[in-house]
Amino acid sequence: MTSGTEQTSVLITNARVLDVHTGEYLEGASILVADGVIAELGGSEVRALAESTVIDAKGRTVLPGFTDAHVHVTACTADLSAQAEWSPTYVAARTGHILRDMLHRGFTTVRDMGGADYGLADAIDEGFFLGPRLLFGGKAISQTGGHADMRHRGRIVADEHPHCPAVGVVCDGVDQIRKTAREQLRTGAHHIKLMLSGGVASPTDRVDSTQLSLDEIRAAVEEAEAANRYVAGHAYTARAINRALQCGVRSIEHGNLLDETSIELFKQHKAFYVPTLVTYQTLADEGPRHGLPADSHRKVSDVLDHGLRALELAHRGGVAILFGTDLLGGMHPHQAEEFAIRAEVQPAIDVIRSATCVAARLVGLEGRIGEIAPGAYADILMVEGDPLDDISVLARPDKHLKLVMKAGHVINRSTPSVVRDS
């Protein structure tokens, strides 16, 4: 099945191309795309192929497609406990709209951190859903009473059917952890997600709790490493973060309450940090309207005020930082606002790197995503304005984003002039 947006070849001319590695622009550049990858990058010497569509960028800024490294594409509501009982086909239908809108905002790759599976990834790859490249981990692994145990206190039975549209699965003990990790890896999971502390959306745990034993964490890490994959860990406090890093967890999600001891461990273990700042402000402002239960809404303030401080500590400490959002339900449209929040602490180029080349390193796609270079997938954005001078250019895709291309397919084109359509 095809979407009708394919181009066998595209030549973009008169572009101002951002090199995310150097932080410099290549002025008057031309980019030749063929068979889904960037074939050539240069100046006027780059020529169109016989079948090329030619797009004149007219000096606009061109940069690589973005990676959001913490999404829940199946999170159609902020009431995750209620969604676990919805029809899987209904959730899939709504997920299709979430995926399409993410791509239209310029996110050409996303890393799902609980809920998405191989079926969604295949549906995108085969053209049944329009969406970003989907790196899925299956369901997040939680202990009983942990962050992915969405049962309220009076409910005893948990539905552990693999196709139940929940974000996680409850496991206790090393053997259960190993089996669940192996099952997810069997389906082609790109990573394993562990719930290692309390969180906002879960009904019965404290944000400052630690979850899963050290042996359980190590078991998941061993299984992921055996499959040449890695473990990502949901963790807020320094205590939860540090025990995860010491066990070999590769990326820490959220981390709002980290401290200087955490910074040293990040660097020692060459781990990655994925803050998700936009979700807390949005949950505080809009959460109840989009289904967030009152008990969860009361926990937002526990982490809201500490996020920027944690980001600043990590940035000053030289930690590898990725772009993530973690939005739920009707709050997904705020996704690009994370750029503006990060810019309160980080230089614009570092915010852009977090969503491009740094993300590529974690997910094992260096040289394929996150840069405009020959051999990379043709994931290309064109924006009006200079994002290095004003990051809000990226925070408002509805206003500034003029072209989205994913793997050579032109998804959205508004302003640029088509010189020739062959």
From TrEMBL:
Residues 61-410 form the Amidohydrolase-related domain. Pfam families: Amidohydro_1. InterPro entries: Amidohydro-rel (IPR006680), Metal-dep_hydrolase_composite (IPR011059), Metal_Hydrolase (IPR032466), Metallo-dep_Hydrolase (IPR051781), OTAase-like (IPR057744). Coiled coil: none annotated. It comes from the Bacteria. This is Amidohydrolase family protein. It comes from Microtetraspora malaysiensis.
